[in-house]
Amino acid sequence: MTQEKTGGRKLTLKRSAAADTGAPRLEERLHKVLAQAGLGSRRALEQRIADGLVKVNGEVAQVGMSISGGDRVELDGKTFVASALAEPARVLLYNKPEGEVTTREDPEGRPTIFDSLPALKGARWIAIGRLDINTTGLLLLTTDGELANAMMHPSFEVEREYVCRVRPPEGQETVPENIVDRLQRGVALEDGPARFDAIKRIGGTDSNEWFQVVVKEGRNREVRRLWESQGCQVSRLKRIRYGSVELPQPLLRGQSQELADDRVQALRTQLGLEDGAPAALTLLPVIGQRRAAKSTVHVGGQHRSNGYVGGHTTADEGRELRLFDNVREVGGRRRQRRPQGGLTLTG
After folding, report:
1. Spatial distance between the Cα atoms of 274 and 264, rounded to a whole number of angstroms
2. Structural element, H or E, at residue 306
3. Is the pLDDT of residue 92 over 70?
4. Residues forming beta bridges with residue 27, ordered by sequence position
C-alpha cells in the first residue's frame, strides 16, 4: 500500500495507526456512516444490520455499534474502508451535456460526468439521480450520502422539472389536449402507473411543441416513456430544476458550480434531516476506486464531448443545442407558434 507522509508521520489504513500516534480514533455509529456513503436511509440500514447483512472487520455487525477510521465494512459483496471526511458536506450543480453517461466507468468507453468534476480528498461525489446520455441539464452531486438518498427516494416526493421538445403523434400537427390531460391524470407504464404532476404547453415550431413538465419520481426514462405511451416522441429533454435547486442561467453545458453552505444545510432541513450533522466518517471502496479527474470548478468555457448521440456527434448538433440551452424567462406578448407562458427561445 502506498503511504503518504505528513509532518514526518506515515498515514495508513491499518487499525494500528491511531494507536501508534496516541491520537483518539474518530468513531461514528455504523448505520450513520453507511447512510453517509449513500447506501440507503438510516432506518433501512439499521434493519439490514439487524438482519446480519453487514460485516465489520470480518464479523457480523450488531445494531447500534460504532466503527472507527480504518475499519473494513462488507455489504452486498463489496468491501469498504471507513475514512474521515476531510471537508463538510458539499453539493455540486453540473450542467450535463449530451453524450455523457452518469456512471463512474463505462464499458463502451463513452465520456462520463465524473471526468469533468472537481477532485475530492477523503470523499467522493454521489450523483443524486441520473440523466440518460441524451438528456441535458441540471445534475446534482453531493458528498452527503444521506442527503442524496433522501432526495432520490420516492417517499420524499422531490420535484424534478424539465423542458422537453415533443413530436406529436403521426398524422397530427399538434399534441391534442386530450393527451395532455391523460398524462396529468395518469397512464399505465410497464413498471406501474405514472403521471406528470404538472404539464404546461410553452410553444412550438412547425413539427414540434415545447412543454414544461414536473415529476416526483426518478424512474428510468420516465418522462420519455410517458410521452411515448401516447405515440409522441421526445426529441429534446432538459432538466431545469431538482427540488428547490434551479439550473443557473449563466451555467453553460459542461460547467459546474457549488451550492453555498447555507443552502446545503437548508436542503437537509427541508428533507427533515436537520436532526444531527452528517457523519464525520464515510466509506470508500477498497477495490476499483476511481478518482475524479483533477480540475477546478468550471466558471468559463464549455465542455466538449465527442460522444455519439442518435448517430450524430454532439458537434453536429451544436447549433440546435445552443437554441435549446437558451430557454429564458422573459416578458412580452405571446406570438403564434412561439413559446408561451413567459418562456421563449433565443439564439
Report:
1. 11
2. none
3. yes
4. 68
Among 182-191, 227-236, 277-286, 305-314, which stretch is predicted with the lowest mean pLDDT?
A: 305-314
Domains and CATH numbers, the chain: 4-88+273-285 (3.10.290.10), 91-265 (3.30.2350.10)
- Is residue 76 annotated as part of the catalytic site, yes or no? no
The set of residues, in sequence order, having a beta carbon less than 8 Å from that of 34 and lying 6+ positions away, is 40, 45, 54, 73, 75, 283
One-letter amino acid at 92 equals L
The pTM score is 0.69
List Cβ neighbours of 40 (8 Å cut-off, separation of 6 or more).
Answer: 34, 48, 149
Q: What's the pLDDT tens digit per position in 54-80?
A: 999 999 999 999 999 899 999 998 899
Q: Nine-digit cell at 172?
A: 397530427
Model confidence pLDDT, tens digit, residues 6-25: 444 444 444 443 334 444 56
What are the Cα distances from residue 62, in Å, to 29, 45, 53, 306? 11, 12, 10, 49
CB of 175 within 8 A of CB of 231? no
Which uninterrupted H or E stretch holds 224?
A: helix 222-228
Indicate the SS3 state at residue 128.
Answer: strand
Catalytic residue chosen out of the listed positions 76, 132, 261, 275: 132
Q: In whole angstroms, what is the distance from residue 113 CA to residue 104 CA? A: 8
